[in-house]
Design brief:
The complex is a heterodimer.
Chain A: H1 2-23, H2 40-73, H3 90-117, E1 126-133, E2 136-141, E3 146-149, E4 151-155, E5 159-166, E6 171-175, E7 179-184, E8 190-195, E9 200-206, E10 218-224, H4 226-237, H5 246-256, E11 287-288, E12 293-294, H6 297-305, H7 307-310, H8 315-319, H9 321-324, H10 332-344
Parallel strand pairs in A: 1-5, 4-10
Antiparallel strand pairs in A: 1-2, 2-3, 5-8, 6-7, 6-9, 9-10, 11-12
Helix pairs in contact in A: 1-2, 2-3, 5-10, 6-10
Chain B: H1 3-12, H2 19-25, H3 29-57, H4 68-102, H5 111-128, H6 131-134, H7 157-185, H8 198-230, H9 243-277, H10 284-297, H11 313-325, H12 327-341, H13 350-371, H14 375-381, H15 385-415, H16 421-447, H17 464-494, H18 532-537, H19 568-583, H20 591-606
Helix pairs in contact in B: 3-4, 3-5, 3-17, 4-5, 4-7, 4-9, 4-15, 5-7, 5-19, 7-8, 7-19, 8-9, 8-10, 9-10, 9-13, 9-15, 10-12, 12-13, 13-15, 13-16, 15-16, 16-17, 19-20
The chains are: A alpha+beta, B mainly alpha.
């Protein structure tokens, strides 16, 4: 009997140990790790989480050990006589009504503190607007005049307020190390804010189910030093580079297939569309297709060849003439030229 | 018992049918309970199969077992099936079979309405699953957030969702009204409210929750239907509607719904634990009071599903506080169950194992629930696998564990035969281990940031190993289910004969034969205490008057007033189902369903409820 009790205890401790082993690690190896805060807001959330975690762990072990102990101790034996017919005990009942209330107060007070602390952005925060679309992100810096897609840059140690909008269904903005989840609801203007505290590239995803390719809606948030941010901003504000050679051929194809009906490329008069990601400086981004593919010739070619493979249900396949009319289909040469054009858009 | 043969003779003089027609026309609460139970168990297997495919798709990064669209349909249908077609009707199966027996009644208050509820439920279930035939299943999640449900973004699957749930709502409301009236009016003499078994109490509470919660969803679904069919703006922001309004309506229903799913299990184990501990429930008043408190609070916490939608800091703070309050009555219940076990003589047979297992796993779900009741923490957990872990510890570790406890406990009463203990223990241990292996790692993978409702994930996210373990866990659960099915089929026909009172029971259902005769109690018992059977077996232990219990040999069972069988409830239900199904084709056509229903209700009203002379 003692050995079974001990083995149950070993299992419980094993669970705790396994939890810790897995929950260790950090965002370097586990890109969406929720317990590796890199901003003031997520650090506050983390502090709260730790309190809750230990409170829950304590209650878990108290109940489990109690339950196992009781089960073994009072297991029926042939010699058992009729157990005393206890109907209750009022002081005990009152005690264990009050006890959980005390635990709850202990977690409710810091909860309320963090809610109010993180509710409103500090005065003068830098403004960013992010708009969710099926399945990509439109990013605008109204004060700077910068418009881009799928890659958010913020300067370190500067409070940033992000206004969240949506053009179609509900999405949600989440960069676990930088900011908690907030929904992007069509018709509403939700806001989050944070001050990033460590340089680096952070992984973000949509975390509200938004249709077929919900799993394929990602982005990167890059925390730059003040100088890097300035350089990035200057580059973003410039018009697209005038393409040469193969890239110029690529632009011809881009324009002739009507790609500019949906995509914007500042400086290309035939690319003014607003239904799809802005491509003005796509060559300088880390990823393409909203965080799905690497920004290299192979991945870009694959994306153009068959967007459906990466992002089922996307509008490019649905609306692009080259996928719906054999007369306009892209040849392999066309694709290579387009890749060159895209890569030239630094 | 000599009365049985005469009883059968008495029964045959009423309008009755045999065979399949007998089941279709039955108004006997016990047979309706069996119909509910078998149908729900079938859908439990369907929902389990859907989950298995989902888990196999997530076994490793980049799996290509099903298409993204199919995956989205599968997780949507898994949730809808488990909630509306498995757990709720399994609860209904217990209400039907057990409540009249526990309160010393011969049937429910409205036997034909009861039959109607079952048939409407069946047709609702078929409509909800109708998408399988047309390859257009609901694929917007069971919560169906607008505007993803608008015609621009989703197909006919959403119509099956709307019409299916609408019909299921009719069934739930009819059943809930029936049980409220039954429990309030048909208790045996002497059974005051505070002498009712806890399972009966929980059924009363759940029925009240249904009556108040389901109409809110009905309103939401009607608005959604008008938005889809007639381009009305309700939840469509392009036309000035408000997508958040749908979320409020859905969760004002949806949160009480969670308690509709868990309270039956709490009631079941509150009856089982005293039986197998040979000790009354510790703090009966507090356990019942906690159930009432949970029910009240459940209407004040819905917005904790919406902490990230942009509610004000004040609203978020209030809903967070209200949500945490629920931990108090829940904690009180857990401690009272443990105090009941304390000092008892615990017979660890299958129903008791499931009940103790319930406490262990439900506590985990409760604790993770308190964690994301804190809104800032919720912003890092919502829509991750942490929440998936939470809801499965509550619904599988809670509701399903409690329901299996109830099945093993009352199977002898339903069939007259015992389930096999060895197979039952295999079932328990495989399920208990399997459920922890499947859902336990989801806590960690959620903390590691894995979003839910994604059909695939890349490698290099740190989630691969844990997902593999989870998928393996599913097959442990399936192995357990095979033991259960084998056990149920075998024991139904060939199990050991149970007798009236196989568990040394405490409440009225164990005073009558197993399976009970159609009229349940030859004489209506007179109750003088909370545990009438136990007190009459052990008069030395209590200071109550011994209760007069059910079976009596010198009663003319021919004179017992029992209702006529009728096929009108089923026909009326066909009208409801047809009307809802045709609504998706053309609203004009659905009038034919309405006409059938009107004819059904009319004929039903003029049909004699009982044989002449009663």
């Amino acid at each position: 009997m003692v050995s079974s009790k001990r083995s149950v205890l070993v299992v419980l401790l094993g669970i705790l140990l396994a939890t810790f082993t897995f929950a260790c690690g950090n965002s370097e190896t586990i890109p969406l790790h929720t317990m590796d805060p890199k901003s003031d807001v997520t650090r506050d959330i983390q502090g709260l989480y730790i309190i809750l975690f230990w409170a829950a762990t304590a209650v878990f072990f108290a109940v489990m050990i109690g339950l196992v102990y009781i089960t073994f101790k009072f297991k029926r034996k042939p010699t058992d006589s009729m157990p005393p017919q206890t109907h209750g005990n009022r002081p005990l009942e009152i005690l264990w009504t009050i006890l959980p209330s005390v635990i709850l107060i202990v977690i409710l007070i810091p909860t309320w503190q963090v809610i109010y602390k993180t509710a409103n952005a500090p005065e003068g925060s830098m403004q960013i607007t992010v708009t969710g679309n099926q399945w990509w992100w439109e990013i605008e810096y109204p004060e700077l005049g910068v418009k881009t897609s799928n890659e958010v840059h913020v300067p370190i140690d500067v409070p940033v307020e992000v206004t969240l909008l949506s053009n179609d269904v509900i999405h949600a903005f989440w960069v676990p190390q930088i900011t908690g989840k907030k929904d992007m609801v069509p018709g509403l203007e939700n806001k989050i804010w944070f001050t990033a505290e460590q340089l680096g590239t952070y992984y973000g995803v949509c975390v509200e189910f938004c249709g077929d390719s919900h799993a394929n809606m990602k982005f990167e948030l890059i925390v730059d030093s003040a100088e890097d941010f300035e350089a990035w901003k200057t580059n973003e504000l410039a018009k697209a580079i005038e393409p040469e050679g193969l890239a110029a051929e690529g632009m011809e194809i881009f324009n002739s297939k009507g790609c500019g009906g949906c995509h914007t490329i500042e400086g290309n008069p035939y690319a003014l569309g607003i239904q799809a990601p802005i491509l003005t400086h796509i060559g300088s981004r880390n990823k393409i297709a909203a965080g799905m593919l690497e920004n290299n010739a192979n991945d870009i070619a694959n994306w153009i060849r068959n967007p459906e493979e990466t992002k089922p249900g996307n509008l490019m396949t649905a609306n692009g003439v080259m996928y719906n009319d054999n007369n306009y289909a892209l040849s392999e040469n066309d694709i290579q030229a387009l890749v060159a054009y895209i890569q030239s858009l630094k | 018992m000599a009365t049985h043969s005469t009883a059968i003779k008495g029964v045959t003089e009423r309008a009755t049918y045999t065979g399949l027609m007998g089941w279709i026309t039955t108004v006997d609460h016990k047979r309706i309970g069996i119909l509910y139970g078998c149908t729900a168990m079938f859908f439990f297997l369907v929902g389990g199969l859907e989950a298995t495919v989902v888990r196999m798709q997530l076994y490793s990064p980049g799996m290509d077992l099903v298409s993204p669209g199919m995956y989205n349909s599968l997780f949507t249908m898994h949730a809808l099936t488990m909630i509306f077609l498995a757990i709720m009707p399994l609860g209904a199966a217990f209400f039907n079979f057990i409540i009249p027996l526990q309160i010393g009644a011969r049937d429910v208050a409205f036997p034909r309405l009861n039959a109607f509820s079952y048939w409407v439920f069946l047709f609702g279930a078929l409509i909800l699953n109708g998408g399988w035939l047309f390859n257009t299943l609901p694929n917007v999640g069971w919560f169906a957030y607008a505007p993803l449900t608008a015609t621009e973004y989703s197909g006919a699957g959403t119509d099956f969702f709307i019409c299916g749930l609408q019909v299921l709502g009719v069934s739930s409301l009819a059943a809930a009204c029936n049980f409220i009236v039954t429990i309030l009016n048909m208790r045996a003499p002497g059974m005051t409210l505070m002498r009712m078994p806890v399972f009966t109490w929980m059924t009363l509470i759940i029925s009240l929750l249904l009556v108040f919660a389901f109409p809110v969803l009905t309103v939401g679904l009607i608005e959604l239907m008008f938005m889809r069919f007639y381009e009305m703006p309700f939840f469509n922001s392009n036309q000035g509607g408000d997508p958040i309004l749908w979320q409020h309506l859905f969760w004002i229903f949806g949160h009480p719904e969670v308690y509709i799913l868990i309270l039956p299990a709490m009631g079941i184990i509150s009856d089982i634990i005293p039986t197998f501990a040979r000790k009354p429930l510790f703090g009966y008043g507090f356990v019942v009071g906690s159930g009432v408190a949970i029910a009240f609070l459940s209407f004040a916490v819905w917005a904790h599903h919406m902490f990230t939608t942009g509610l004000s800091a004040l609203a978020v703070s209030v809903f967070s506080g209200a949500t945490m309050l629920i931990a108090i009555p829940t904690g009180v219940k857990v401690l009272n169950w443990m105090a009941t076990l304390w000092g008892g003589s615990l017979d660890l047979r299958t129903p008791m194992l499931w009940s103790i297992g319930f406490i262990a796993t439900f506590v985990v779900g409760g604790l993770s629930g308190v964690m994301h009741a804190s809104p800032p923490v919720d912003t890092q957990q919502q829509d991750t696998y942490f929440i998936v872990a939470h809801i499965h510890y509550v619904l599988f570790g809670g509701s399903i564990m409690g329901i299996f406890a109830g099945i093993y406990y009352w199977f002898p009463k339903v069939t007259g035969r015992m389930m096999n203990e060895t197979l039952g223990k295999w079932h328990f241990w495989l399920s208990f281990i399997g459920m922890n292996v499947t859902f336990g790692p989801m806590h960690i993978v959620g903390i590691l940031g894995m979003p839910r409702r994604i059909y695939t994930y890349p490698s290099g996210m740190g989630w691969d190993f844990l997902n593999q373990i989870e998928t393996i866990g599913v097959f442990i659960i399936i192995a357990g289910m095979l033991f259960f099915l084998q056990n149920a089929f075998r024991s139904w026909k060939n199990g050991e004969i149970a007798g009236d009172d196989p568990w040394d029971g405490r409440t009225l259902e164990w005073t009558i034969p197993s399976p009970p005769p159609e009229y349940n109690f030859a004489t209506i018992p007179v109750v003088h205490s909370r545990e009438p059977l136990w007190d009459s077996k052990h008069p030395e232990l209590g200071d109550h008057l011994p209760s007069v219990t059910g079976a009596s040999d010198d009663v003319d069972t021919e004179s017992i007033h029992m209702p006529n069988a009728s096929y009108w409830p089923a026909i009326t239900a066909i009208g409801v189902g047809l009307g809802a199904a045709l609504l998706m084709v053309n609203p004009i056509l659905s009038i034919s369903g309405v006409i059938i229903s009107i004819v059904g209700v009319y004929a039903w009203s003029f049909e004699p409820a009982a044989p002449e002379g009663h």
